[in-house]
Amino acid sequence: MRILIADDHDLLRDALVAFMDQEDNIETHTAADLTEAVALIDGDWTYDLVLLDYNMPGMNGLEGLKVAADRSGVHRVALMSGEASRDIAEKALEMGATGFVPKTLPAKSLVNAIKFMAMGEQYAPLDFMTAEPEANDHPLLENLTDRETQVLKGLTEGKSNKEIARDLDLSEPTVKLHVKTLYKKLGVANRTQAALIARDQGVF
């Protein structure tokens, strides 16, 4: 069984490889971005599973999933993420992904999920897919749309418009519009002030 793990975080990638190497009859290859992953897929190897990090360079939201799945000889491509929403997971499965794996899974569960998908079974953790979204009724958010709230959360995490766009599967110009509207609604002049207000008032 041969598995390709593509993730731009060295620590997580190395940890996953270490876990998989403890299993019998599993060969693990790695890539740091989508371009490198595609080069390996197009090379001399055949993979039982290609596991892609949703937020790594080159992914462009779910487009990267399609790029990998369309390569000849690859039939099982799965998505993993530490931040993607249930909506993104559902869209990935609808597009034909073999599964969706939250990075928050315990190590043993993560390994089992990867083996399960590599054998051809579809996987998505039931508790993640059925969990109700957390309600946040903070007064500061009363006049914000759900998207504006998500963008504000990204600002408090110090993310760039490009990173927020990637996380929310939006275009960068759309995120810029949401940021501009946020400034007006919050009465601030820049992203730093918006983030500070949200943090100071304990919104997230």
Describe this structure in words.
InterPro entries: CheY-like_superfamily (IPR011006), EvgA-like (IPR051015), NreC/VraR/RcsB-like_REC (IPR058245), Sig_transdc_resp-reg_C-effctor (IPR016032), Sig_transdc_resp-reg_receiver (IPR001789), Tscrpt_reg_LuxR_C (IPR000792), WH-like_DNA-bd_sf (IPR036388). One of its GO terms (biological process) is phosphorelay signal transduction system. By secondary structure, the chain is of the alpha/beta class. It folds into two domains: 129 residues, Rossmann fold, CATH 3.40.50.2300; 62 residues, Arc Repressor Mutant, subunit A, CATH 1.10.10. 48% of the residues lie in helices and 12% in strands. It has a five-stranded parallel beta sheet, sandwiched between helices. Helix 7 packs across helix 9 and helix 8 packs across helix 9. The longest helix is centred in the C-terminal third of the chain and has 15 residues. The protein is elongated. The model has no long low-confidence stretch (mean pLDDT 89).
List keywords for this structure.
single chain; 204 residues; alpha/beta; Rossmann fold; Arc Repressor Mutant, subunit A; five-stranded parallel beta sheet; 10 helices; elongated
Summarize this, please?
The protein is an alpha/beta fold. Helix content is 48%, strand content 12%.
Q: Strand content of the residues, in percent?
A: 5-15%
Task: Outline the low-pLDDT stretches.
Answer: none
CATH homologous superfamily caption of the largest domain: Response regulator
Shape: elongated
Rg (CA only): 19 Å
What is the fold named in CATH at topology level of the largest domain? Rossmann fold
**In this structure, how is the largest beta sheet organized?**
5 strands, parallel
Query: Helix-strand pattern, N to C?
Result: EHEHEHEHEHHHHHH
Determine the structural class based on helices, strands and strand pairing.
alpha/beta
Please provide the count of β strands.
5
The CATH architecture of the largest domain: 3-Layer(aba) Sandwich
Helix content percent band: 40-55%
Strand order across the biggest sheet? 2-1-3-4-5
Average of pLDDT: 89
Number of helices: 10
Query: What's the CATH class label of the largest domain?
Result: Alpha Beta
Q: How many angstroms separate the termini?
A: 42 Å
Whole-number total of structural domains:
2
Domain Response regulatory: 2-118
GO biological process, one term: phosphorelay signal transduction system
Keywords: DNA-binding, Hydrolase, Phosphoprotein, Protease, Transcription, Transcription regulation
Modified residues (4-aspartylphosphate): 53
